[in-house]
Amino acid sequence: MRILAIESSCDETAIALLKTDGRSLFLEKNQVYSQINIHRKFGGVVPEVAARKHLETIIPLLDSSLGRSKLDKIDFLAVTSGPGLITSLLLGITVAQTLAYTSQLPLYPINHLEGHIYSNWLSNKELVKNEKKYWPALILVVSGGHTELILMKGHGDYQRLGQTLDDAAGESFDKIAKFLSLGYPGGSIISQWAKKGNSAAYNFPRPMIDSHDYNFSFSGLKTAVLYALEKKKNINQQDIADIAASFQQAVVEVLIFKTFQAIQQHKVKAIMLAGGVAANQLLKEKFQQKSDSLNLLFFYPRQRFSGDNAAMIAAAAYYHHQQNRKPLQGIKILSLQPQVNWQLIENRI
Ligand code: KG4
Ligand code: ZN
Known about the structure:
By secondary structure, the chain is α/β, with parallel strands linked by helices. Helix content is 44%, strand content 19%. The protein folds into two domains: 2-117 and 306-346, ATPase, nucleotide binding domain (Nucleotidyltransferase, domain 5, 2-Layer Sandwich); 131-301, Nucleotidyltransferase, domain 5, CATH 3.30.420.40. Strands 3-2-1-4-5 form a five-stranded mixed β-sheet, with helices on both faces. Strands 8-7-6-9-10 form a five-stranded mixed β-sheet, sandwiched between helices. A hairpin with a 4-residue loop joins β6 and β7. It is globular, with a radius of gyration of 20 Å. The chain starts with a strand and ends in a 27-residue tail after the last helix. The model has no long low-confidence stretch (mean pLDDT 95). It binds 5'-O-[(R)-(carboxyoxy)(hydroxy)phosphoryl]adenosine (KG4) and zinc ion. Zinc ion (ZN) binds at residues 112, 116, 143, 275-276, 308. Zinc ion is lined by residues 112, 116, 143, 275-276, 308. One of its GO terms (molecular function) is iron ion binding. It is found in: Cytoplasm.
């Protein structure tokens, strides 16, 4: 079985070809064209610019991904149809609709967050072989737009336990990097600076740690960093490193605390990270330590699958197919619309 997937929800144009015999997932192609260099000078993603770039890139990327393996060797298509930037989503959706309708191929609309969850299946063979052993699993989705704690009881069976009430975890990294004039995107930059800093130098707040629920908030932490910066007249390299390390420590502590608090109430067999922030080394180390101490299995996506990519969309679509979910076919393909705020818990198709 071969799946062609398209992802264009934000500032990455991505196409993947995934082959599977049901026992393993094999990536024949996984192309990601990142627009980061273009958006960097604006300090964040400019939706209009992102859409134009998707338009320029998507067809050449499709050509180079498909190569000689023509569409008649594809069993079905998948496309990210939300959540994301409407103009960016539209590009991928329109291309997928055109391909699916003209080639009479079924099309699965995939939720971007569900795609991030399935980056774990792409990264861990054991999960593909023995997934039933690991359910229910608790998944922390941490990206530039979302921070959600999700209980997954099976394919397509999600219960959201909590989410951020304001900024997403990745967004807070991006904003702090901006305050410190370190560039965009902030996550990897801050984590690099943090390596040279003292994480106890600043005692930043751990927002909502006592809220007795599974929700998050990162905007107060952002403000606390801003105040600390304003107080300092001159800021040297060591200050930047200390602020980065102390900030990262605060974010990681909150993420760990809330996730492992949920385990006390919900019996889970595995913990997973998903989304761009899953690339964070400290986060992975702390999750590993804590999971080991509780004898829980911990899965995380390999670096190449933690950021936005189409392979994770193809993997999610494969499981939709395996679970006999209905894809869009025929004229229905043309009615697919971007769902900018698509909630994962409404994901049952
Ligand atoms: O999942 P993703 O690629 O895009 C969205 O769906 O939003 O996540 C991007 C986010 C950005 O906010 C970026 O700063 C963050 O992931 N990120 C990191 C790291 N690498 C990327 N955050 C913390 N530490 C990292 N190493
Ligand atoms: Zn993403």
